[in-house]
Amino acid sequence: MFDWISHVSTSGLLIIFSGAGIVIVVAGTRFAGIVDCLADRTHIGEAIAGAVFMGATTSLPDIVVSTSTAATGHPELALANAIGGIAVQTAFLAIADITYRRANLEHAAASLTNMLQATLLIVLLAIPLMAMATPEVAVLGVHPASIAMLIVYGFGLRWTARNRDSVAWRPAVTQETVGDEENTGDDQRSLSRLWGTFIFYACIVVAAGYAVAETGVGLAECTGLSESAVGAVFTGVATSSGELVTSIAAVRRGALTLAVGGIVGGNTFDTLLVAVSDGAFRQGSIYHAVGDHPAFLAASTVLMSAILLMGLLSRQKQGWGNIGFESVLILAIYSGTIALLFVF
Questions:
Q1: CA distances from 344 to 39, 292, 295, 340 (A)
Q2: 3-343: CATH class
Q3: How much is the pTM?
């Protein structure tokens, strides 16, 4: 799959890599409006639409990168891309918080669904860490932890949808709270045309993700950087850039629950890339074929996700300016994590 890389210069790889990243960003700017309309037309709500439609679709480049790199014998790059994508997307939510000037985004976008998704995310991230710390086991080349992740995700998604309108917990409505309100009058396109447009951009994102995967491996070989550093910083950021633009676009549209749900739900979906990568890696358990970097990255991502959940629960109206304490801490932890990946 990667034979053509040897015939491309480092500058050429950078150009292709950057171009693919730009394509992902451009496609991502279109997703927010389409998903917002689909959420209204299908009546499933912005939080679930963000998790399933926007989160999963903007994760398509990560799927291509992680599965293709795992299948071709680069397990560390596969895991670093998957987990690094979750980390950078959490940091992107902090950036989206900065762009919302009225109040702390986690306060304004109060949603039980997003809190349940954040809790599910922490649970799913803990499973690979447990697998890495236990003896190597593989059934037909797949670790039981990967199967467990698929089961837990399916159960968790159903649990979240079932409790979406639970009366046991409702956020206190303040002047800064922006609810999930349906608005079907903004876009007059038919539902079938909306789905067609959605699928069209999804295909573009997949093609761009393939280019990022191939050039990412080439850059790791040319620069001599560790695969974890390349996966967490280069491919992780490039394939996740769609989440940043879709979240900011959703914030500008006033679809705050969709913005938070797209990131948190997308992160939850991205944990499945770890399981899929294990299936694609045919040399045994992927959890035991990597060094300490992916485990460190996963632990750091758990910490960032827990802080995000604390922010969603505490609903701080104002912090430093209009950014909450959780966003400041998340950006600090992410910056420190990336710096340490380049050091050791």
A1: 44, 10, 13, 6
A2: mainly alpha
A3: 0.76
